[in-house]
């Protein structure tokens, strides 16, 4: 009896030792993989910073126009990037919100709905250069808007919508069913329930999703080259004529975003343009990182305001 | 299947709420509730008991037509409320649910302040207009749910900061603020500790004394004996036996009810 018990415990010990070492190996391998990914990110960021931080921090780089004699800057491109982002969000957020609410709350469970969902997912995997080509043919030529901020924003909207619809849909679905039932049981209509109960509860996640998508839109280049143009615009911030091509707010003028500017300077280098490219890349990177941090902060702040106070 | 000794099991003239042969089918084929006829009176608490999946919650959710919110769920039979059948496609669900309130298993406060939780629906329905009316409604509703003394100094705070029991009483107060004449409870205490449970049971009795008709689904048979005047026992989609709570627990007739009460299944 004793020996059998002993034998069993020896076998058990060996088994424990084996799964122990398996566990260690697996943990080790996974740690190395994660480490590599992090190293890659850090390396890219560090490389861009080393190459571009000097230029990005040069006084005047952020505040001078591109044709400044002493320090050529990126003021116009910076403005155009943010302005185009703003126009894109103004168009895409209401549409996405509406689509997501419809899909979650109202859409009947049938083939039309599943076709709509598939269509949205397909839209999100369209190559952005194809979106750009379509935008150039449809918005620029067919609708006759010309190479313009509006055409660019519409192209950006086309691939911002699927991301937004997906995140808003997820945020709405994550609101507990009981909240919805409670509101309906109080005699509220579905619409009142959605607007007054579901949306506030989902708001932190929705805002986070919007800001994250903004980061993606901000760095997009391919879809803009044929729609918003790639020639740096000359802007006159004192202009009050909203139809003038130099008025910063005119949505029918061509515009050149930071990412497109990088593409243009790289494909058509001029004297000293390499420095500007790296400086611009640094600014672009900083903005995108900022969007990510902002998304987290806003999300946390909102959910604290909605739950605690 | 109804017990012969309970005349109220057949629809009586002038009753507040009466069901006649109510059936519920999910996905067109699965019958979750078989022809159920019950009557509920003003100021009376009725407990619906039975093992899990017996159809008691399904039946409860027919009374305010919440089952209509579930896709492919159909309700058959007639449900008379104040003498007219509400189980028709023409029935205005939103009007109906203003006077038949419901409290759920999990407390479901909205992400709003305590005050706004109470006023939310009355405001939407345009029932309160002035600040004074609002204050009064908040106070009376919270007092009815025995929550006023605990929260009167923090009405502007989030309802999510309350304890589970307080949240559930807030949900009761919120329901009462609609001035309903029927309140449905779907296992209101199953997520709560014994002390909160006791407080809610007391509240249920107090509300009944104001003439409101209450129907409560419960797994807890002790609770049924403590709060209810009448009890109905459900088993696998059938309403097997109904009567006064005293009769059901002291002198059950149906073998399945006897087995259930003696703990042979459940």
What does this structure look like?
The complex is a heterodimer of chains A (309) and B (266). Chain A has 309 residues and is mostly helical. Chain A folds into 2 domains: 1-57; 75-308, MetI-like (MetI-like fold, Orthogonal Bundle), CATH 1.10.3720. Chain A has helices at residues 2-56, 75-106, 111-125, 128-142, 149-173, 177-185, 190-218, 222-225, 258-267, 273-307. The longest helix of chain A has 55 residues, at 2-56. Chain B has 266 residues and is an alpha/beta fold. Helices cover 35% and strands 24% of the residues of chain B. A 6-stranded mixed beta sheet of chain B has the order 6-7-8-3-9-10, with helices on both faces. A 4-stranded antiparallel beta sheet of chain B has the order 2-1-4-5, with helices on one face. The interface between A and B is medium-sized, with 22 and 30 residues.
């Amino acid at each position: 009896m004793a020996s059998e018990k002993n034998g069993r415990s020896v076998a058990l010990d060996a088994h424990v030792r084996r799964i122990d070492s398996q566990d260690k190996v697996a943990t080790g391998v996974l740690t190395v993989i994660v480490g590599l990914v992090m190293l890659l990110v850090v390396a890219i960021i560090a490389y861009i910073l080393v190459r571009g931080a000097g230029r990005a921090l040069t006084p005047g780089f952020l505040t001078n126009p591109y044709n400044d004699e002493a320090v050529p800057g990126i003021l116009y491109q910076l403005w155009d990037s943010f302005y185009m982002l703003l126009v894109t969000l103004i168009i895409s957020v209401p549409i996405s919100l509406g689509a997501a609410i419809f899909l979650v709350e109202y859409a009947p469970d049938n083939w039309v709905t599943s076709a709509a969902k598939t269509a949205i997912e397909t839209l999100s995997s369209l190559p952005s250069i194809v979106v750009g080509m379509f935008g150039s043919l449809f918005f620029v030529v067919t609708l006759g808007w010309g190479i313009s901020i509006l055409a660019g924003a519409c192209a950006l909207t086309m691939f911002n919508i699927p991301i937004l619809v997906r995140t808003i849909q997820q945020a709405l679905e994550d609101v507990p069913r009981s909240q919805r039932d409670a509101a309906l049981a109080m005699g509220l209509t579905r619409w009142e329930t959605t607007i007054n109960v579901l949306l506030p509860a989902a708001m932190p996640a929705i805002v986070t999703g919007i800001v994250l998508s903004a980061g993606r839109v901000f760095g997009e280049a391919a879809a803009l080259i044929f729609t918003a143009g790639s020639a740096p615009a000359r802007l006159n911030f004192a202009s009050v004529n909203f139809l003038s091509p130099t008025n910063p707010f005119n949505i029918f003028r061509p515009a050149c975003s930071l990412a497109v500017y990088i593409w243009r300077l790289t494909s058509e280098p001029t004297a000293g343009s390499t420095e500007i490219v790296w400086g611009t890349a640094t600014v672009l990177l900083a903005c995108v990182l900022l969007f990510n941090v902002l998304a987290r902060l806003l999300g946390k702040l909102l959910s604290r305001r909605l739950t605690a106070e | 299947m109804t017990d012969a000794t309970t005349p109220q099991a057949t629809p009586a003239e002038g009753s507040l709420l009466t069901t006649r042969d109510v059936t519920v089918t999910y996905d067109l084929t699965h019958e979750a509730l078989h022809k159920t006829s019950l009557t509920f009176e003003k100021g009376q608490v009725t407990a619906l008991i039975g093992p899990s999946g017996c159809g008691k919650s399904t039946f409860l959710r027919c009374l305010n037509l919440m089952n209509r919110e579930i896709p492919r769920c159909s309700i058959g039979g007639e449900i008379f409320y104040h003498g007219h059948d509400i189980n028709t496609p023409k029935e205005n669900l939103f009007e109906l649910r203003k006077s038949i309130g419901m409290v759920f298993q999990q407390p479901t406060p909205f992400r709003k302040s305590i005050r706004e939780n109470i006023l939310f629906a009355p405001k939407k329905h345009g029932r309160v207009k002035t600040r004074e009316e609002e204050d009064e409604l908040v106070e009376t509703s919270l007092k009815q749910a025995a929550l006023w003394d605990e929260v009167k100094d923090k009405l502007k705070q989030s309802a999510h900061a309350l304890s589970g029991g307080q949240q559930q009483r807030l949900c009761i107060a919120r329901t009462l603020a609609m001035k309903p004449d029927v309140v449905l409870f779907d296992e209101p205490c199953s997520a709560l500790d014994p002390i909160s449970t006791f407080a809610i049971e007391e509240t249920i009795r107090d509300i009944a004394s104001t003439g409101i008709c209450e129907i409560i689904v419960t797994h807890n048979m002790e609770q049924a004996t403590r709060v209810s005047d009448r009890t109905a026992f459900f088993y696998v989609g059938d309403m097997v036996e109904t009567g006064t709570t005293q009769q059901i627990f002291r002198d059950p007739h149906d073998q399945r009810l006897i087995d259930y009460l003696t703990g042979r299944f459940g």
